Amino acid sequence: MRCDTLWHNANLMTLDDASGGLGLVHDGVVAARDGRIVYAGPAHAAPAFEADQRVDCEGRWISPGLIDCHTHLVYAGNRAGEFEQRLQGVSYADIARAGGGIVSTVRATRAADDAALLKATLPRLDAMLAEGITTLEIKSGYGLSLPDERKQLRVARELGTLRKVEVVPTFLGAHAVPPGHEAQAYINEVCAVMIPAIAAEGLAEAVDIFCENIAFSPAQAQQVFEAAQQHGLAIKIHAEQLSNQHGAELAAKHGALSADHIEHLDAAGIAAMRAAGTVAVLLPGAYYFTREMVLPPIQQLRDAGVPIALATDSNPGTSPLTSPLLTMNMGATLFRLTVDECIAGFTREAARALGRSDRIGKLAPGMECDLAIWDIEAPADLVYRIGFNPLHARIWRGLPV
Predict the structure, then answer these.
(1) pLDDT for residue 9
(2) CA-to-CA distance for 67 and 168, rounded, in angstroms?
(3) CA 204 to CA 156: how far, in whole Å?
(4) At residue 93, does pLDDT exceed 80?
(5) Distances (CA, A) of 384 to 69, 128, 268, 323
(6) Do the Cβ atoms of 66 and 346 come closer than 8 Å?
(7) Which residues contact residue 5 at a Cβ distance below 8 angstroms, ignoring those fewer than 6 apart?
(8) Share of residues in the chain with pLDDT > 70 (%)
(9) Residue 169: what are its φ and ψ, rounded to 5°?
(10) What angle, 0 to 180 degrees and rounded to 10, lies between the N-to-C axes of helices 102-111 and 146-162?
């Protein structure tokens, strides 16, 4: 069998395991042709390959390329001052009500043109790529007007042309109520004007909403979901971060790809997510940074069989985090996730949260050949070490980058 590249003398985390584990293979090989995997498994069972290039991995570990399924990477401005306020005891909700928070970043983002946003965002993206990210979602939500939301989504798509990475754009126009607007009138605009325009221009794949007592109500979330689905867009939700608004349950009943944050998720929400296959995306960076005290219901999610993904939630106000590796450690130390859950959360389950589980997130024939090659002794090293990057090589669509 012919292949373009054969990586051999490697240990594999295939994530292609019916039991939900890492699918470990010692002395394994990965073969790729035309940017897709044609074989990933034990060397002794591999076909006889005629490879244009053979790469000796010298015993290193290969995992699928990492996937960050929840980021707000494109923005302008800085909210270090709010960080200082929180250190002095001011709550995130109080900052938001005083005109800070998301609205602060909106002002800075509206003032920046495309070039300025690109310049500000590229270093954040490069930091992620340096730790093995090959696919990431980028949400809008710092424009809160159609021209500025378009601008964010344009920049997100341009990032995918400037770097070897797949960018998945999500429209989060319902992130906050813009200054001078009333919530319901703004949601009406999101549904009647913004979503149809974004869909027609192909600027986003999904629509998200922040359903919370400082943002939008469940009734308004339902309105957004119905508008999104009328225009062929998938749906996601920021839910149950600060209180239980039953947003995750509502989103799941509309077939949402994911419900994210979910610290205050209840049993009804878990049951609805299980029934719909909605992924629970946990965001330990935001939990840590805002010093939250209510843990997500991890064991109940496990017991129900709800898929669990992890993400950085990279954003300027509540999770200024660009390290998937540190996020894995936070997932383990703060949420008590297992090593397998942390790694699966940034690969197989993150792919599921983006509706891409048929293409990425596993080492299996037919999947995109997106790989991370690690200088580690065991998979646990990816979760255990803090402030250490063992990435040896990042492979995107079968080529080193």
Answers:
(1) 98
(2) 10
(3) 10
(4) no
(5) 22, 18, 34, 14
(6) yes
(7) 31, 32, 51, 52, 53, 54, 55, 369, 398
(8) 100
(9) -85, 135
(10) 70
Structure tokens at 86: 């929180």
Q: Of 333, 335, 307, whose CA–CA distance to 385 is shortest? A: 333
Token pair of 255 as six digits = 């077939």
Q: Is 392 exposed, middle or buried (0-12, 13-18, 19+ CB in 10 A)?
A: middle
| C-alpha span between 139 and 303 (Å, rounded) | 30
Question: How many whole angstroms separate alpha carbon 33 and alpha carbon 5?
Answer: 7
What is the chain's mean pLDDT, rounded?
A: 97
Coil, strand or helix: which one is 63? strand
Question: If DSSP codes are grouped into helix, strand and coil, which group holds residue 234?
Answer: strand
Do 339 and 380 contact (CB within 8 A), yes or no? yes
Tell me the one-letter amino acid at 157: R
pTM of the model: 0.97
| Furthest CA-CA distance within the chain | 67
Q: What span, in angstroms and rounded, lies between the C-alpha atoms of 353 and 70?
A: 9
87 token code pair = 């250190």
In one letter, which amino acid is 192? A
Distance CA 89, CA 86 (A): 5
- Helical (H) or strand (E) element with 123: helix 114-129
Distance CA 75, CA 341 (A): 30
Calpha distance 51→266 (Å, rounded): 52
